[in-house]
Specification:
heterodimer; A: mainly alpha; about 80% helix; B: mainly alpha; 4 helices; elongated
């Protein structure tokens, strides 16, 4: 068993799993019924899918420069997508989206009425 | 031995090509959400999703063509997608507060 064969097999597996996650994210984006639910599906599963696919593509061509860029991409996505998701969720709530499935009182109601950030 | 390695390489390239072709399905789903999204927020969420699809497409293109510059393209797309999402979220929030 050659080491290259193992590397390529692992890379293909990573890519397929990443694609499945990306597909699930887009399915959630299409099928969920609320902007906040859609944001939840798109940001979490989308990050995992893109990160796994980039990791798989870099693993197949096992060079130092490629792996460095791939680690940079995965690190950047992991650090920035939660920030973007938080900003988007805040903006969606303040732009007047209804929180579906919320039975009790809305804890953010006070924030909504005051105009300060 | 050399023949087996060549076959593995061909299998890998073909599989990447198939995955790249299949990526048009999530792309179409995102496009549908962007066109029919009832509110502006849905369109911004779809635009954020488009960044992830674009980074994935860059990585798969690198595997198909064997040129590693496409990974740099993916990094640039991730950076600009983050900036765009932040700017659009700030716009949406200032618009909703009025």
């Amino acid at each position: 068993m050659n080491i290259d064969v193992v590397l390529i097999a692992v890379a293909l597996l990573l890519k397929t799993i990443g694609f499945a996650f990306l597909f699930a994210a887009c399915l959630g984006l299409l099928r969920f019924q609320d902007p906040l639910q859609r944001m939840h599906a798109a940001t979490k599963a989308g990050t995992i899918g893109a990160g796994l696919t980039v990791g798989g593509a870099a693993l197949a061509s096992a060079e130092g420069a490629t792996l460095t860029i791939a680690v940079l991409i995965i690190l950047f996505l992991t650090l920035t997508v939660p920030v973007a998701a938080h900003l988007l969720g805040r903006a969606i709530y303040f732009s007047g989206a209804q929180l579906l499935g919320l039975e009790e009182r809305d804890a953010l109601q006070k924030e909504n009425e005051s105009d300060g950030m | 031995m050399m023949d087996t390695l060549l076959q593995i390489d061909l299998l890998y390239t073909t599989a990447s090509r198939v995955l790249l072709a299949l990526l048009s399905i999530p792309l179409g789903m995102t496009l549908v959400r962007m066109i029919y999204g009832p509110t502006l927020a849905d369109r911004f969420v779809a635009l954020d999703m488009l960044t992830g699809v674009a980074v994935t497409a860059a990585a798969l293109t690198m595997a198909v063509t064997g040129r590693r510059e496409f990974l740099d393209v993916g990094l640039g797309l991730a950076v600009f997608g983050f900036m765009g999402t932040c700017a659009l979220a700030a716009f949406l929030e200032s618009r909703g507060k009025k």
